[in-house]
Amino acid sequence: MRTIYLLALLLFPFLAMAQYPLPIPPALTGTEFELHLQKGAREFFPGFTTNTMGVNGDLLGPTLILNKGDLVTMNLINELDEPTTIHWHGMHVSAANDGGPHTVIEAGTTWSPQFTVLDHAATYWYHPHLHMKTAEHVTKGIAGFIIVKDEEEAALELPRSYGEDDFPIVIQSRAFDADMQFIVETAADDVLLVNGVRDPYLEVPAQVVRLRLLNGSTDRTYNLGFEGNIEFFQIATDGGLLGEPLPMDRLQLAPGERAEILLNLNGMAGQSLTLKSFSSELASGIYGAASPSPMPVATIPGYSSNPLNGSDFDILKLNVGSPSVNPITAIPATLVPQNPIPEASAQQTRNLTFQPQQMGPTGMANGPFVINGASFNLDVINFEIPLGNTEIWQLTNMTGISHPFHIHDVQFYVLDVNGAPPPANMLGRKDVVLVPPMGGTVRFITRFEDFADDEVPYMYHCHMLTHEDAGMMGQFIVTGPNATKEPSSTDGLKVYPNPAIDAWNLVFEENTGEEGYFVLRNSFGQTIRQFKSIVEPTVQIPCAELPAGWYIMEVRTGDQNYVLSLLKR
């Protein structure tokens, strides 16, 4: 059937030129969210119904808009007929709330993690992370944006009217079988979906607009730019804003990576422009380039027949209309100060080497791949990291294909790529980095703060989801003498204001009149204050004399144990 449909596109090319309005995911705000993981169906090709998965709908999910410092609750209701997980990609949360493969949401159950938003303003995302099922669940459609806002970003003159001058854009290449059902493990990902539709267009105002770009593809890397080499400005990487807008005409985005760009459309009402991937310019060894490996004999079955590989192709057409009310009309000169971690402060260096499980041309390009000689094992902890450690991780890629490396829990700063300083647009906070093939290296520096857990690990892995599912993943726990764990729930105890300047007020809904034990710790797990007190409906914790930063308050009373993340301004 697919052959017949493709033949029709050749005979009647107007079918391939059909344009569909780009859907903007609905935005959810507040501090408590209800997310239904469900099955659905979608017609990507006329006359064919494709089975899908989604969140609060048939495909993809709503955008979650969070504020730094808020305590949020995520109620995830699994209405699938199989288990899954949800991982908050790029966010700094405790291991128990991270949503890795150990935190399984069984069919028919609800998982309700609760955590304080500690992250900088940036674009993050959520997606499943069940071992050996991640690629399938993401491919079928479970994924969504997370937008975090903070005071630094709010002080800048930037587009931030969601769906009006601030647009989330997720790019995903997909493969379909003859019945137009998704195929997961294949190099035939020759259909491009943007926000879940083919051949999209977007109506934009004639002013400065913001595009939040996410590569949500299973394997493919894009080389983004605009037809005619129109200049745009990158303002953010995975984990936050850069120091200043960077003018550019190409942006390489590997699976899992995000970037925010500004496009100046002043005076362009009535014109159109096209976002493209200039994949013909990708270096050999990147999935999406003309050759998936610098080794001529290392091939991937079906790769060379995929028309997207090594080609330039359209992603999104922008139709420019009239300006909105009170438009942003200028690109800001500066953004936010950058505070990279000094290399000299590192206490430890860890070396991770990517290798094929079996040597030879086939294994070098196709895998399966391993890290430090071992395939992923749910029962093996690969690293134990002391709480508060500052570390350099050196990644060495001895395979024939580039790998986008992702680490949970932390954001990092890239120190060098193949021994050279990274380009300017990689100097901000990152959680995914593409490691070049054939002995290529990347070094980054990061600090493991706030959360330690002796039982639940964090993950690190290749973000080519087929590689991850096949075992290119490891796990680590963060340990410390004063390990702090975010609770899954703090029902019965609330805090205000948070952040605070002079004092936090703890409001108890139960256990009043009983003796309580209160412990306040700093972000390194060190005890700052501890005392016993009879629990009143409201207990005040003075903080005026404390340095600004994050603190953990643990309260034990009766048979209850509460843990709160507190911010002091």
Description:
The chain contains 5 helices and 40 strands. The protein is mainly beta and 569 residues long. Among the domains are: 137 residues, Immunoglobulin-like (Sandwich), CATH 2.60.40; 76 residues, Macroglobulin (MG2) domain (Immunoglobulin-like, Sandwich). Strands 12, 13, 14, 16, 18, 19 and 21 form a 7-stranded mixed β-sheet that branches. The protein has a 6-stranded mixed β-sheet with strand order 1-15-23-22-17-20, with no helix packed on it. A 5-stranded mixed β-sheet has the order 2-5-11-10-7. The longest helix has 10 residues. The N terminus is likely disordered.
Keywords:
single chain; about 575 residues; Immunoglobulin-like; 7-stranded mixed β-sheet; 6-stranded mixed β-sheet; 5 helices; 40 strands
Could you give the topology of this structure?
Blueprint lengths: L1 H10 L8 E2 L5 E2 L3 E14 L2 E8 L7 E5 L3 E8 L8 E3 L20 E2 L2 E3 L5 E6 L6 H6 L4 E6 L1 H4 L11 E11 L5 E2 L7 E4 L5 E6 L2 E8 L6 E5 L5 E6 L2 E9 L2 E3 L4 E7 L7 E7 L33 E10 L26 E9 L4 H6 L2 E3 L11 E4 L3 E8 L5 E5 L5 E5 L14 E4 L4 E8 L10 E5 L2 H5 L3 E7 L13 E4 L6 E6 L6 E8 L4 E8 L3 E5 L6 E9 L2 E9 L1
Parallel strand pairs: 1-15, 2-5, 3-6, 5-11, 12-16, 15-23, 24-27, 26-33
Antiparallel strand pairs: 3-4, 6-8, 6-9, 7-10, 10-11, 12-13, 12-14, 16-21, 17-20, 17-22, 18-19, 18-21, 22-23, 24-25, 27-31, 28-30, 28-32, 29-31, 32-33, 34-35, 35-38, 36-37, 36-39, 39-40
